[in-house]
Amino acid sequence: MTQPRAVVAGYAIVSMDDRINDASGNMPEALRNEGDWRRFQAELDRAQLVVLGRLGHEAHSNPRERRRVVVSSSAMSLEQRDGTWWWNPAGLAWGAVAAALLPSGGRVAVPGGRGVFDLFLSIGFDEFHLTRATGARLGAGHFVFSACAGGASAESLLTSAGLAPSPVELIDAAAGVTSTVWRRTSGALTEK
Ligand SMILES: NC(=O)c1ccc[n+]([C@@H]2O[C@H](COP(=O)([O-])OP(=O)(O)OC[C@H]3O[C@@H](n4cnc5c(N)ncnc54)[C@H](OP(=O)(O)O)[C@@H]3O)[C@@H](O)[C@H]2O)c1
What we know:
globular, Dihydrofolate Reductase, subunit A, ten-stranded mixed β-sheet
């Protein structure tokens, strides 16, 4: 019987030059937007699993006790520490993680950062919710995907990864913040 599939959705708010943070390694005010935050929180609420990088995990407490998987090279493969799952992709494939933690399938929210976005760009996103702060150009900081450093836009990388955009939605006209949901067009993925 085929394993029910986990649907993987990425979430990022990026500047016009595809950055997710600034030169200091922090999220600047220009990338903070109340409307985007509310939508993001609602998306996390409807996910059965949240997969994020270690720094993001350490920076953001988990008051709603969402089920987290922390990506870290410090994990052996998949292990539990204090009620949180820790995963090292070098030790266990995503398909095995999904089968172990979501045996009946479900939604997986991926809020980054860059290393985790890179990881799932190669595994395969089913959706990517790309929010743009159209007034922000940071000039430094992490790109949303490492390959943006070579000049590729986030949109071109999502297209190459088999996703297509829905119409752009204006979520905050005063702040110039838009959102585009990219969805897989090339059929169901097999778990990697
Ligand atoms: N604008 C946005 O939408 C957005 C989204 C996310 C984050 N951010 C911002 O970006 C910054 C944090 O992001 P970040 O990229 O620096 O950190 P991060 O992704 O939260 O954490 C990085 C850590 O995650 C682990 N990791 C990531 N990919 C891995 C892989 N493939 N294999 C093994 N371990 C892996 C490593 O942990 P170990 O060192 O333990 O191996 C790495 O040091 C913050 O400023 C945050 O606010 C912005």
